[in-house]
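Dock nicotinamide-adenine-dinucleotide; give full complex structure.
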Amino acid sequence: MRLKIAVLAGDGIGPEVTREATNILRAVAELGGHEFTFVEGLLGGVAITATGSPLPTATLDAALDSDAVLLGAVGDNKFNALPPDKRPEAGLLQIRQALGGFANLRPSIAYKALSASSPLRPEVTENVDILFVRELLGGLYFGAPREWNKETNEAINTMRYTRDEVVRVARVAFELAGKRRKKVTSVDKANVLEVSQLWRATVTEVAKDYPGVTLEHQLVDSMAMHIMNTPRNFDVVLTENLFGDILSDEAGVITGSLGMLPSATIGGAVNLYEPVHGSAPDIAGTGKANPLGAILTAAMVLRHSANLEQDARAVEQAVHQVLDAGYRTADIARGSQAGQQTVTTQEMGKRVHQALTESIDRRQSMHAV
Ligand code: NAD
């Protein structure tokens, strides 16, 4: 298997966590005999310092010429005085737009070892494994007209979807559900909004092509409650842009730390992979950054761009194993609990690397017998 990965580590803790994620990808390549090449590019504050632009042409070209883009995080307080379109974050928005992914995937997983990190009770979060599929290019964030008229004191945004936009993201959700627990929950507000009525009718129609997958519809307001009360009931949750933005953040509390959350945006020219967190300038350079969100993002690269499902699962399993063994970065350490050890970014990366190598070695020797 050959894969060219553009690595845009970015600012703050971006390079620290991305280093651990690429180490994991290198280990998978080495152990499995795959050829992964890594092309580094500048994005965000580091790109502004070096070139004056948050997304230099060379970076965009390298991204478009790759099979997958792995991003760290962008953002640096020293550029806060710049206008929004010149800041590091503008580079991120531009590259997301240029790559054109329309389906944003965000897993929300409960780790048994971290049950104390979530504000929800362990019996509620136990075995939760939700995958959000959020439509990313349509809806209220992009619909026209949009305006704040300061003279009339009136503002408008437009929630707009076409049938085709709903079909393509719904297909992603059903395909993924088919490989998981075979259930799609589609979220809308069809009792009030025409856009949601189109959404519901279209998703219902797409579902006919996937007879092995169960479809249920939920209204967004009651869904906000169900996610907290009975998160175990959900497998793939399909949403439009705004609802997905809010609900996936809400579900982030199930995992317990921002540093644990991965994401992928697929369906465009090249898939884009990034941990959910930002550049965390408050802890950059201290070794306190949790690299597990970035490492789990690397697992998504293996699953969605390399079609190496077994290796993706091995990485996720290695993360579970290291957490079960008591290793914690500062954000997920809870006091001085017995059996826990607080480790640095690098140490955490090394532990996952070790657990992963052992599990791939075991798998290979079983195959060799
Ligand atoms: P943030 O996600 O960077 O940090 C929020 C809090 O979570 C901080 O206390 C931070 O220390 C902690 N945190 C985040 N990631 C962590 C990790 N991996 N391990 C341990 N702790 C972690 O959000 P913010 O502070 O609002 O923003 C900081 C900068 O990042 C800003 O410039 C913002 O614009 C940018 N940002 C970038 C992205 C992105 O690149 N995708 C996303 C959000 C924010």
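Observed: The CA atoms of residues 162 and 198 lie 8 Å apart.
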